[in-house]
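Kindly review this protein for my students:
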Amino acid sequence: MKTAVIRIGWRRGLIELRQSFTNGADLFGHFLWPVLMLVVLFFLRDREFGATGFLLGTLALPSILGMNAAMGMVSMSQQLTADREDGTLLRAKATPNGVQGYLIGKVVSVAGGLIADLAILLIPALFIIDGLVAGTLGSWLTLSWVLLLGLVATLPIGAILGSVFPSARAQGLVQLPVLGLIGISGIFYPITALPTWLEWIAQLTPIYWLGLGMRSALLPDAAVGVEIGDSWRHWETVAVLGVWAVLGLLIAPAVLRRMARRESGSTVATRREKALQRVG
């Protein structure tokens, strides 16, 4: 039974992913942000960061990749909330193991779309930015396991957040704390320059470790001097992201099932009526 659910969810996710690249509006969204970031990186490619000798573009690229990967939890919560409002989740609930298949499919489609977006940004950036170590086998392996483990750690969090908020309007508040955590996570500014208590808060989140792993994969060893303990801390990265992944995979299905039990045709109709009133 579990194998059948995984197969159904995988197929559902691939269908949604393919649709996102055949729909004009979704396709535009896939390319808009990477293209904008590539323009920014192009103008930063020759500017040095203080007296470090590192180029701003070199330091910025891993940060942008880490931020995009971390924002996958927001995309996950947004899509789940939207599916609650239009009745997609209610229809999934009506089929055997539909909620589990729905969750697997949503993870596959969101993760696939995010990986595609990162590739659209990273591959051209390798020809624009100097000073990266992304040409080595070790860097690609590190980038791969950090990204995959980071997605497993963050996307279930997005599913939980999408289950908690009752509407897309309320769900928009999710972005504020996520952006705040990104701001103190060391993705855009060395975390060692922050107060110690903020360092500890940042290290409790998967966002910091996702950004650290991205930097360890793409930046030269000399850049480790601005990190905590002058180390990329790969084992700690695996441990923390692994803990978040296990907690998310255990909690998300239970929260989603509990939320799905409260769904009914009347609740969906009520949400639609309120949405129409807001539009009107």
Q: What stands out?
A: The chain is about 75% helix and 0% strand. Residues 2-279 form one domain. Residues 49 and 56 are 5 Å apart (CA to CA).
